[in-house]
Amino acid sequence: MEKAHFLFLVALVASLATASSSTTNVVARNNTNDHDLDALLAFKAAISDPQNILPTNWSTSTSVCNWIGITCNRRHRRVAAIQLPKMGLVGTIPPQLGNLSFLVWLDLENNSFHGNLPTQMVHLRRLKYFNLAFNSFDGSLPTTLSNATMLETIRFGTNLITGYLPQDWSALQNLEFLDMENNQLDGPLPRSLFNVSSLQIFSFTNNTLSGYLPARICDHLPQLKGLYLSNNEFSGAVPAGIGGCPRLQVLSLSYNNLAGNIPKEISNLTMLRVVFLAPNDVQGQIPADIGNLTNLEQLGIEVANLTGNN
Ligand SMILES: *[C@@H]1O[C@H](CO)[C@@H](O)[C@H](O)[C@H]1NC(C)=O
Ligand SMILES: *[C@@H]1O[C@H](CO)[C@@H](O)[C@H](O)[C@H]1NC(C)=O
Ligand SMILES: *[C@@H]1O[C@H](CO)[C@@H](O)[C@H](O)[C@H]1NC(C)=O
Ligand SMILES: *[C@@H]1O[C@H](CO)[C@@H](O)[C@H](O)[C@H]1NC(C)=O
Ligand SMILES: *[C@@H]1O[C@H](CO)[C@@H](O)[C@H](O)[C@H]1NC(C)=O
Ligand SMILES: *[C@@H]1O[C@H](CO)[C@@H](O)[C@H](O)[C@H]1NC(C)=O
Ligand SMILES: *[C@@H]1O[C@H](CO)[C@@H](O)[C@H](O)[C@H]1NC(C)=O
Ligand SMILES: *[C@@H]1O[C@H](CO)[C@@H](O)[C@H](O)[C@H]1NC(C)=O
Ligand SMILES: *[C@@H]1O[C@H](CO)[C@@H](O)[C@H](O)[C@H]1NC(C)=O
Ligand SMILES: *[C@@H]1O[C@H](CO)[C@@H](O)[C@H](O)[C@H]1NC(C)=O
């Protein structure tokens, strides 16, 4: 009696597993959620792989937790990390990747991925590290990431991303590292972005961003270490408020349309190592107190009409 019950249960579980499977292969599922397998199979199907790494290493005869580049968490055996940098992969990110609800780490740096970033990525509410740098992603950025509030690192640099940086991104209150360099973003940066007080590195070098920098740029950025805005179309003044970022080490504003004086408040930044302000239309004196900056290693200020005092 007991045994008959048990066998019935086994048969039921087996038929449920088959019914919910999108593959006809015999698949070793163990505890790993079926959705994770389906999402990764959709990802595999969207990739062509000249080095043939995935066809042999992403086999359904073993758990996805054993697949190359995949790490599962210990507790739930759910996919927690995808690490596939520099694998020569060509392809797109399918919307199903947004179903990996336990994903914390996604690193696809330096491959040949292209296409849009699927909006479904916003469902990855545990994601902390999101690196798509050095690929060929195009199109605009997902307008909302407001549920991915755990994000600490976003590296989308060196792609072909166009359009505005969405206002909504200022909801990412744990963001420390934002790298968007070498893309084709335009328009002004949303003011609210300068309110993300966890930010340490802020890099938009080589886009076509425009508009003024906020006068009180540092009021809500106490952790900022690097401000990289060279090669854009920012105009207006170099904000005096820059003196309010006590941890700033790198200030790079060259190749913009900035005008006016170099604010004397720069001399306040005792951690500064590297300053690039040239060539802009910045004029006037180099503040005398800049000599107080004992950590300064590199200073690029080539102004057209310099009246320095040394
Ligand atoms: C991945 O597949 C290649 C063959 O394409 C093989 O040489 C290599 O050992 C596999 N790596 C792992 C970790 O299984
Ligand atoms: C399933 O889990 C068991 C026990 O943890 C393990 O021995 C076995 O290798 C796993 N099977 C696969 C295909 O991962
Ligand atoms: C997985 O993602 C796709 C596309 O976003 C969606 O249609 C599907 O319902 C999702 N499946 C699950 C189980 O969440
Ligand atoms: C990208 O990877 C290639 C090799 O696959 C390497 O030569 C190149 O230096 C890498 N680029 C970056 C920016 O890491
Ligand atoms: C964000 O999360 C809330 C609550 O879980 C959910 O209702 C909403 O649909 C999510 N929004 C997005 C864009 O995923
Ligand atoms: C700037 O970005 C463009 C693409 O937007 C790229 O072609 C160019 O090489 C980049 N310049 C530098 C100096 O990296
Ligand atoms: C930034 O934060 C300050 C203080 O919390 C608030 O007064 C201001 O409205 C915020 N600015 C933006 C653009 O969100
Ligand atoms: C410069 O630093 C002093 C003290 O460290 C501070 O009181 C002052 O507000 C700073 N000036 C600016 C412009 O941030
Ligand atoms: C720079 O050093 C001089 C001499 O020690 C001092 O008088 C001045 O207040 C310092 N300036 C700043 C901005 O700290
Ligand atoms: C420098 O400034 C003077 C007076 O403001 C102006 O006449 C001159 O044209 C400027 N020179 C350059 C190279 O901008």
UniProtKB/TrEMBL annotation:
Classification via Pfam families: LRR_1, LRR_4, LRRNT_2
Location, primary (coarse class): membrane
Record's GO cellular component terms: membrane
| Ranges where the Leucine-rich repeat-containing N-terminal plant-type domain occurs | 34-73
Quote the protein name from its UniProt record: Leucine-rich repeat-containing N-terminal plant-type domain-containing protein
| Record-linked PANTHER family | DNA DAMAGE-REPAIR/TOLERATION PROTEIN DRT100 (PTHR48060), L DOMAIN-LIKE PROTEIN (PTHR48060:SF21)
Residues crossing the lipid bilayer are none
Q: Which family does it belong to?
A: Belongs to the RLP family.
Per the UniProt entry, the signal peptide is 1-19
Q: How does it sit in the membrane?
A: Single-pass type I membrane protein
Gene source species: Coffea canephora
Q: Which Gene3D superfamilies match?
A: Ribonuclease Inhibitor
